Amino acid sequence: MFGSSDDVLVEDEFLRDGLQNEARLLPLDDKLAFVRGLEAAGVRRIQLGSFVNPARVPQMADTDALFSAVERRPGVTYTALVLNMAGLERALAVAAPHLSISVSASESHSRANVGKPVDEALAHIAPVIGRALAAGVTVRAGIQSAFGCGFEGRVAPERVVAVAKTFDGLGVHEINLADTAGLGNPRQVHELTGAVRAAVRPDVRLSLHLHDTRGLGLANMVAGLQAGVRIFDAALGGLGGCPFIPAASGNIATEDAVFALEEMGFATGIDWQALAALSRRLEGLLERRLPGRMARIAAPDVAPNPAKG
Amino acid sequence: MFGSSDDVLVEDEFLRDGLQNEARLLPLDDKLAFVRGLEAAGVRRIQLGSFVNPARVPQMADTDALFSAVERRPGVTYTALVLNMAGLERALAVAAPHLSISVSASESHSRANVGKPVDEALAHIAPVIGRALAAGVTVRAGIQSAFGCGFEGRVAPERVVAVAKTFDGLGVHEINLADTAGLGNPRQVHELTGAVRAAVRPDVRLSLHLHDTRGLGLANMVAGLQAGVRIFDAALGGLGGCPFIPAASGNIATEDAVFALEEMGFATGIDWQALAALSRRLEGLLERRLPGRMARIAAPDVAPNPAKG
Q: Would residue B3 count as lying in a domain?
């Protein structure tokens, strides 16, 4: 089904894509404790936050401080999201070794998010990527809304491939296709990922950022695996949905993704039960249930689901 | 990814596999209203209940009455679960045209469920299947715990294939592989389904019964599609989890399965928005949120998930 079962890298993004939607600010010490918890569970790439306007996203205002405070462990990559040159300067000031630098493939999402159409946003981000690469940063270029957008629905695959080719031409190390609104389906993920794979240099790595809004997050991950992707974003507990929509789901849950990958024979190096325990700690802090499933399955006070007739 | 995108048959089982776990009994009139709702949404096969011991499963005690009361529409198949000859006689008495008759592939689950090891349970069910076929009933033979069991973990694939071959030899029309405890993963579903497909007559149809306990329900459905399966069980709202395990998930939600299938280009003949509305009615009756996702997405008072940065 998959050809080979290689290692898979799972990047946890709950500190960024999860917390940015929370009304409550998580104190720096709590963030640091979660970074240590993720490391202890075996997570090898951790997105600490984003270098964006603190007035717009107050939850991310301490990303600089967090980068400075984190003790960097060998074998773990610390990364963050950057959307413009001002953000990159802040990232370089704290010696971020790896960055996600992204644009949206959807015209209306791009205008809503950065006030520019896609072509202008790309022209604007190119020197940011160039400067990051020149500074020795490993650059992952991200394509938001690659599988559709809440404003305009499906985005034409050719548009996504064109953005990927532009990124490829800039010499980025990795290209990330993001299903920002959770609109993608497995067939689409398989086809679009294959089209991007065929359009860029063979040594550019591909990764997928998946949301579980319609319950297809893990199905889309499997479709990505079948298309050869071996890097997936996830968020502890499945954090990341809009807190104003009841039961709206966020990113695929890191513990669920790791469990599924290991069950299928892929090696992640991550202990999903340690993540499940960490996810329950996060639920305690946020005072609500998160959508991830394995935190329930692994709970010590909960018996395994009995087999039924 | 799938070869062809044929029609897919989705069998709704919420009236059986969903309601059998509920503490509250749904009155016959409510059950009839939901049957009409499922028909109106386009569902073409509806499992009305099970002919089992009413003392053990009181929620199913009115299955005979429901079969007699339902007005049978052309193009819709009404079915039920049967586990022994006494149940079959009741099913024949109400002229059930289609039945699921099943055993477990797991020794410990079989002993817990029917008090017999698998071989004895098979020997016991063979004349039931024979009598049903002789009476002109369309028989779907089910293999419970085909992907593992809460008591003993993974079940050897050869055991499942052996049970399937026995069923095949009896001349059944369809073989259903059931992930009763929600332990299956996509690789396993793909491999086991392929192995069963290769072991039985080409004109025996295969179907999958999937639970979403670990969030892999729809991913397993996609793996089944890739293995050529075109019949899937589901339950309105994703009902069917154990009510004593918080957040434990039941069957894949019919509305979510239909949405995903249609998004991938398969034709189900079902209107998922009508199902989502029906699912919200069921939530009203049961006075709790169900795990299905599309009932949230489609809710008229809830805006579509906005695209985020």
A: no
Task: Render the burial of B212-241: b for 16+ CB within 10 Å, e for the rest.
Answer: bbbbbbbbbbbbbbbbebbbbbbbbbbbbb
**Residue B57 to residue A222: CA distance in whole angstroms:** 37
Mean pLDDT over each residue of chain A, to the nearest integer: 93
Burial of B85 (0-12, 13-18, 19+ CB in 10 A): middle
- Residue A299: per-residue pLDDT: 60
Residues B155/B146, Cβ–Cβ less than 8 Å? yes
Query: Tokens 């190096």, residue?
Result: A269
**What backbone torsions phi and psi does residue A271 show, to the nearest 5 degrees?**
-90, 105
> Would you call A214 and B144 a contact, using CB atoms and an 8 Å cutoff?
no
- Does some domain include residue B2? no
Residue A57 maps to which CATH number? 3.20.20.70
pLDDT of residue B242: 60
Residues on chain A touching B293 (C-beta within 8 angstroms):
213-215, 247, 249
B242 among known catalytic residues: yes
Distance (Å, rounded) from C-alpha A17 to C-alpha A254? 13
Closest CA to B137 of B190, B173, B163, B110: B173
Which residues, at least 6 apart from B279, have a Cβ–Cβ distance to it below 8 Å?
Answer: B236, B237, B253, B254, B255, B290, B292, B294, B295
What tens digit of pLDDT does each residue of A80-110 get? 999 999 999 999 999 999 999 999 999 998 9
Number of separate domains in chain B: 1
Taking only the tens place, the pLDDT of each residue in B40-72 is 999 999 999 999 999 999 999 999 999 999 999
Q: Which of B186, B217, B296 sits opposite A222 (nearest CB)?
A: B186
**B150, A307: Cβ pair inside 8 Å?**
yes
Q: Is residue B211 part of a domain?
A: yes
pTM of the model: 0.94
Does the pLDDT value for residue A118 go beyond 60? yes
Domain that holds residue A163: 9-297
Q: What are the two backbone dihedrals, phi and then psi, of residue B193, each rounded to the nearest 5 degrees?
A: -60, -40
| Residue A284 falls inside a structural domain | yes
Please count the residues of chain A.
309
**CA A171 remoteness from chain centre:** 21
**Beta strand segments in chain A, E:** 9-12, 45-51, 77-82, 98-104, 138-144, 174-178, 205-209, 231-234
Q: How far apart are CA A182 and CA A241, in angstroms?
A: 10
